[in-house]
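re the bet — no i am not wrong, look at it urself. input seq straight from the record:
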Amino acid sequence: MDENKYREYAINNISQAKSGLFIVCGPMFAGKSSFLLSLNKKINNKIIIKHSFDDRYKSKNSIVTHDADKTKCCVCKNTEEIRSLLKDKEKKKELRFVLIDEVQFFDKDIVQYCVDLVNQGKVVVCFGLDKDFNDNGFEITKDLMSQADNVYKIKGTCFFCGNPSVSSFLKPTITERKNGNVIIGTDDKYIPLCRGCFSVFNILKKLKTNGTEKTKNQKKDK
């Protein structure tokens, strides 16, 4: 199944679900936000939430794709804020779909809360990165995947060879560090790579970094 048909299948499957936990994950530039916007057009009785940590595109209260398409959303910084936000809607039973973007940034309580929402008859769809720029899995995403009814891993296009991308490569010119393994950015800081290209360019980046550190140490010794 090609990527477009796979996404269409996934969107139809989620939109027709009675309840369940669904995870849509992959690297940057894979089209997760576009997937969310396409799903949004097919469903009613919904709420869209994203983590406050995502401040890209200068659009705090919107989900924005890399092509500048967007839709309004609610912004929360932790699971407790989501719980408070949904409290009234849950009581009135107005809510069927809960869409959560950038889920990897939320605290660990988000996993059990998503399960609780599903047990109340909701359809919960979590969108997020499966791996950080070191190609290590995000713990929150991994834990959600283990609880999910279905996991849809989507791919983009490798910047160099055109094969399906599975990794988000941090450009070697980026040296900042923010909140451990998280650096917020878009194509100013990242490029999508396939598994093979990521391995090659990650080695080259490490060699460059080690060479730079060696030069600095040599200058200090002098």
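see?? The two ends are 60 Å apart (CA to CA). told u. also DSSP finds six helices and twelve strands in the chain. so pay up
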